[in-house]
């Protein structure tokens, strides 16, 4: 059975410091059985101001963050899902929040741009977020074959939109990967429920890779990176702090669950004849 790893970080505004921590975990993971590693949303930096995403944006295929990931993927002969990197757009004041997938040769083989942008005022709080001021939303879903299975890509706030995951299911995904920087306020009541629900609804693995703790902006993220199996059971989790989790992807079990419990074949839309 193939194994997958997920890293959890408390990233700050210093790109080099963040990448140094990532390299430490990649080296450790490379000594084990995992063929693919997932990195959190904004793994390379969590800036003091969102405009810094624009200032540090890269062109796809070029830039220090991508070069770092490419070199380490090739060095350790491991696939890396780098979520997320700010990528330049035609608008000089906007970027995309992009997950880039690197194969074990260090080549970019897939890209997913975050579709749902976090524009909210948190209830009972002074916290508000307006990602659309800096980020352009993506438009397309992305599914890719990897050594651990067929993976569908998603990012953070996407988690709240089950329609996106149902569309990924239509492409026969076996695993859905979700890098995140979920807020502590919403995460402590919604995070685990939503992650497990997406796994159960689609009878697939959910692999999340999260930011955790207090960041320079004063924002607190929820952590709780976890790998959930198609039956909704948590296979591995790191609640708080930096580190990583690993789990085997049991394709025989996944196939068995889908055959014996064929709810995905029973999907009926209202009005269908």
Q: Class, according to the CATH hierarchy?
A: Alpha Beta
CATH topology: Nitrilase/N-carbamoyl-D-aminoacid amidohydrolase
Which class of secondary structure composition applies to the elements? alpha/beta
Helix content percent band? 25-40%
* Beta-strand content bin: 25-35%
N-end to C-end Cα span: 41 Å
- Biggest sheet strand line-up: 5-4-3-2-1-16
The coarse overall form would be globular
Largest sheet: 6 strands, mixed
Average of the residue pLDDT scores: 94
Please, how many domains?
1
Which architecture per CATH?
A: 4-Layer Sandwich
CATH homology-level superfamily: Carbon-nitrogen hydrolase
Count every beta strand, where a strand is a DSSP E run of 2 or more residues.
16
Number of helices: 6
SSE order, one letter for each helix or strand: EHEHHEEEEEEEHEHEEEEEEH
Rg over CA atoms: 18 Å
Low-confidence stretches: none
Write the layout of secondary structure elements.
Elements: E1 2-8, H1 15-30, E2 34-38, H2 51-55, H3 64-76, E3 79-88, E4 95-102, E5 108-113, E6 119-121, E7 128-130, E8 143-146, E9 149-153, H4 162-169, E10 175-180, H5 184-202, E11 205-210, E12 212-214, E13 220-222, E14 225-228, E15 234-238, E16 243-249, H6 251-260
Helix pairs in contact: 1-3
